[in-house]
Amino acid sequence: MSEYTTGEIAKLCGVTVRxxxxxxxxxxxxxxxxxxxxxxxxxxxxxxxxxxxxxxxELGLPIDSITQLLSEPDSSSVILLLLDQQEKELRDKxxxxxxxxxxxxxxxxxxxxxxxxxxESIGDIAYIMxxxxxxxxxxxxxxxxGIPINVIEIAAIVLWIVKGIWLPFVLWLVMDIVxxxxxxxxxxxxxxxxxxxxxxxxxxxxxxxxxxxxxPNTRKLTCTNCGHHGFCVEIYGGNISx
Length: 242
What we know:
Elements (H helix, E strand, L loop, with lengths): L5 H8 L3 H9 L7 E2 L5 E2 L2 H15 L4 H8 L4 H37 L7 H45 L3 H24 E4 L6 E2 L3 H6 L6 E5 L6 E8 L6
Antiparallel strand pairs: 1-2, 3-4, 3-6, 5-6
Helix pairs in contact: 1-2, 6-7
């Protein structure tokens, strides 16, 4: 017959060791035996009882109510009734989710034949989501390089103010200019934009992109395809040439 330590039964039931110990102090889950070294050992029956307790806790029952329920002579019948109820609720949820999925699939099929709905807009969303991780990686690279540059800047300014040594600040200024040029080019080569008017993916001229007004996810540009001037959605575009 299998025996489990406190840590093992906690892992099997997806709870912390402290939780198992707390149930022990409340008399909910008393170990079947103690080892010679005083360690708590739980049996298969204890494991099943712990699973029942966890289930009742997931239903929102407080500890006192669970203690009272398990002390009743016919507690198994009540627990079976709760299990049946939970099973019914889960099956109802699955049924509702399946209904939503069917409607979604039906909508997708219908959109192919409806001309009044902008399928291009839906395609834009899918394209943006697909490239979101790549764009995030580009921005993380910039952040990873930019933070040390800022630290060096602060150190150089402090050294200049406190010690009167200005050479490190001049060196940092040169490095900052080089970094600014590099990071701008690096970012430019890896991003592109979707025009909200014609839905084309395009890459503007570097000068236009550099000076354009922007938000975290858009930039005010002129589309190279249709000439629309306005905020365009920024995406990853490392494989798109200008």
